[in-house]
Queue: 3 jobs
Job 1
Amino acid sequence: MKVGITRQMHENMLMLMKNMLDLGELAFSGIGGSSSGAFRNYRSQMMLYVTKKEKDDMMALFREGVVEVCPCGASLDGGPRWDKCPDCAGSGYRMKGEH
């Protein structure tokens, strides 16, 4: 099965975010770990950062005519998450002409 660039980019961003959150949890382990307010703030900021960067990348590809909005309805507006869509994996964009 061919993996589209948008799907691969989205899954890479999700893996990066998970790794950064795991490292953050380790760093905050001395002050309450994942239940601390400091970690919750870190997690929120990390999710916002990843979402913004991924949106910026997808919009650049969209403006260049490389990608199109995926008809599955997925969106990064609610934050980055994985979806079962075979074209976009939850990013909301797929390669132009991919189906």
Job 2
Amino acid sequence: MDVLKQRSSWPSSILTGLIGWNGFLIIVALAFGYPTPPSVLFLVGTLAAVVQVVALRLLFFVLKLDRGLAYGAVWGAITAALIFLGESVFFPQLGEHFLVWFLTAVYIGPAVGAFLSYFYRDDQEIEAAATPGQPVDYGRDGHWLEPFVFGAVAYLWVFMPRTADLALAALVVGAMSGVFAAGASHFVLFSYVRRTGIPFLIGLVGGAVQGALTGLLFRGFADSLWGDPIAVGTSAGVLTYLLTLARGHSLACEEADREKAEGNVSTPEPPAEDAE
């Protein structure tokens, strides 16, 4: 969908909030071994994300989020704190470990607000440089959601969840893992790296290390997994990296071919003047 390539569009903004809120709430619960079900935290995070993003988008220019990341971060923190305090009244599960949840919320909020500001300003620059009357080409930035999707798909496929809570946990952890894998995929943007086995090595080693660490988050689901949590996580991490690196390699080749084609277009020389 073209609207999702524009990171400052309404759908992209909502997705930014959903990824941030649900990602960190569920990962914090898994990391600390809290008994709060991912399904409950997913509901909390989804409500918070929608309310915060709608409020910040509607008051975007009033709150001066278009002026810089600092405005986004400050108002993101304020709205997150207010939203979480309101949600804590309706979700008694948040009463236990309240301070941890509150600190997590005021960590997520500024990040979401800052990203809304950054995406708006960055898209404005891209659109201003675009050729009038032609569709805007957002380049690699237009593929910003793909790493989340690759990670989510890889973890869901490898973990083969049999419960909704495990599915949500795998979905969120996988999506966040895809972002780190995307960072590694930038290595294949360099032509001299693409001609070596470095990307494949990065995928195996980086994916295995990161996957093993994420596997520790699923120790509470050990009885529902087909193998040891670390082994399952390692497999999912490697698959996430390989998928993301393959996509990065494809995009890099497309860019190289496009630049080569543009470089081969010769500009006609003006006719030489007659010799006197």
Job 3
Amino acid sequence: MFIVQAIVRARTELIVYFLLSSWLESLDHDGRARAIPAKAKQLPIRGMRDVRQRLAVVREKIGQRSAGSPSDMRSLEEAAAALSVACEQLRNLETEDARTVAERPVRAGMRS
């Protein structure tokens, strides 16, 4: 899945959100969006908490026996993979940012 690979390579949170948003929009063009719950594909994406909620909605749909055809299940599984990797990457980037700020030397005499 291209989207998963792209998200893993994203170097900022903004890029992760951009990739997810673009990917969700592209689903409408090839028909895969119909399998994904509306709450999971609604734009804009509003942060990591929002991404986690979308993942929960998709996983819930996958868990339902009436999730749909095999192609619908593939679309849902792809969405779950993309959202799961996005959550992980956002968490990693947040940790990296916190570490970078903590390691930044304090310069004496600097004013804000």
